[in-house]
Amino acid sequence: MSGFLQAGRPPLILASTSKVRAQLLEAAGLAFIVEAPGLDESAMREAVGGDALLAPQDVAEVLARAKAEAVSELARKAYVIGADQVLSFGDTIMSKPGSMEDARRQLLDLSGKTHTLHTAAALATGGEIVWADTQMATLTMRKLSPEFIGRYLAAAGEEVLNSVGAYQIESVGIQLFEKIEGDYFTVLGLPLLPLLAALRREGVIEG
Q1: What do you get for the CA distance between the two ends of the chain, in Å?
Q2: CATH class of 12-201
Q3: Which DSSP state fits 6?
Q4: How far is Cα 207 from Cα 204, in angstroms, rounded to an integer?
Q5: At what angle do helices 146-156 and 100-110 cross, to 10 degrees?
């Protein structure tokens, strides 16, 4: 079924190595290739998000745009999707945990509290952005004991290091939460419905 909406239309590239984002696009019936943007995301996040230079939603959109533009410069006839997600917790912007110990600390910090995910996507062609959008979701974690966090991390494994907040709600990470307000796809890391609408407007997929 993949690609049945795209016959004779411009090629589509996902400028992300996220397995979940690729799975979402595949499930939506799209044909695309994956191309890593080749950017130093940690340095970029520090540059645009350090000392609260930009609001969290703006950090997410700047990074999504940068990823789409970087790949679009190399594949100018294609349409390129860039995406990024930022977790804000009070005045703090959290990054992906660098180790399982970092993951444990993040979960202890978020335990029993509410935080916000800011998920941005951008679409580029010819080296220029033609669309961008940022969606937000609010998540409240249950009060978690250190023992439960330890068991959760052992069950989830190092895959949690690929997610801000050290959770993946599409799997065992859903056990951490008391309440989630917002679009499911936004939580997973891709505002899929607005993106599909943009692809239709641009003529990349059939309307």
Answers
A1: 16
A2: alpha beta
A3: -
A4: 9
A5: 130
Residue 17 and residue 127: Cα distance in Å, rounded? 20
Instruction: Estimate to the nearest angstrom the gap between the alpha carbon of 140 and the chain centroid.
Output: 19
| Residues 76-115: tens digit of each pLDDT | 999 999 999 999 999 899 988 999 999 999 999 999 999 9
Distance of alpha carbon 48 from alpha carbon 54, whole angstroms: 6
User: Which pTM does this prediction carry?
Assistant: 0.92
What counts of helices (H) and strands (E) characterise the chain?
Answer: 7, 7
Category of 122 on φ-ψ map: left (φ > 0), alpha (ψ -120 to 50) or beta: beta
Enter the tokens of residue 115: 């935080």
d(CA 42, CA 65): 15
Strands, DSSP E only, in 20-113?
33-34, 79-89, 92-94
Instruction: State how far the Cα of 114 lies from the Cα of 97, in Å rounded to an integer.
Output: 18
Q: What positions carry a catalytic annotation?
A: 84
- Residue type for position 159: E
The CA distance from 70 to 63, in Å, is: 11
